[in-house]
Amino acid sequence: MAANKAGLRLKLENGTDLADKIDPRFLSLTLVEKRDGSADELTLSLQNADGKLAVPSAGQILSLALGWESRFDAFPVGLVDKGRFRVDEVEESGPPDQIVIRARSADLAGTYAKRRNRVWHDTTLGALISEIAARHGITARVHPDLAAQPIEALEQHNKSDMALVQDLGKRFDAVATWKDRKILILPKGGTTTAGGKSIPTITLTRQDGWNWRFIRAERGGQKGVEAQYHDGASGARKTVSQGAGDAYRLKHIYASKSSATRAAKSNLAKRLRAKSKFEYYLAVADCRLRPNQGVTLKGWSKAVSDTKWLIESVETTMADKGLRQMVRLEGA
User: What does the alpha-carbon distance between residue 55 and residue 121 come to, in Å, rounded to a whole number?
Assistant: First the structure.
């Protein structure tokens, strides 16, 4: 019977494979994958007792895959691609001498952060994202449920394309990320990828891990959201609302009723998700887990088991030839 054995593939952008070179020096690796537009973070610790280790310099691009080389239970064997990372920082310390390499998602750098000024009128989310992607020589992948969403007017005032895409994600209650030379726009909690492939919901039980924490918070008495817009026909400022009861009023004044309604609906969904949080340390990592994936929890209280959950972030740690994970969930 084969023993559990974790594996990784780490390559430079020129194709040089680093995994074998670092294997005798490997101490630990931590990967944090996030959902809401923030860069994924990679930390790699290596021993350097002989002082002979040559490490990637800041700015170099690494590609990473993680998974299991051999297992005896239900997890499939094979490495899962985790994308490209740009080395941000290299730290040396001792004794004992070691080197820590810190890197972030490669696509959240460069010209994406350049501030720009631009105004759009009468377009769609899909067309706007495609234009931004083309400017950077990458691909736009906008989910079919969102691609045709109208944008009556949008001003990019001294704002980077990266920040603008994140703002659009908030406006449409969508996951908006730059990854693997693509801009990805997906509905939060969606069950298919932008290309139409099914995203399976996973089930986790008490037997899958150990430490866990559940938080249920009532964010005040406001159970609705209001948004104001300028009515072109009457010249008056009007209000739309989503939810019931006392409402939180958004500060921005929108250009149309449809824009205001969309913003109120998105903000309400975000507020409802934020009420429920769950953290779980898994005994064995599943590298197929990814942010925005649906999760069912079984074996806990009714409040936990009856909640629909989404993965907010995944933290995977590799050490001593094993993989562990901590998943953060929020109510869907």
Answer: 48
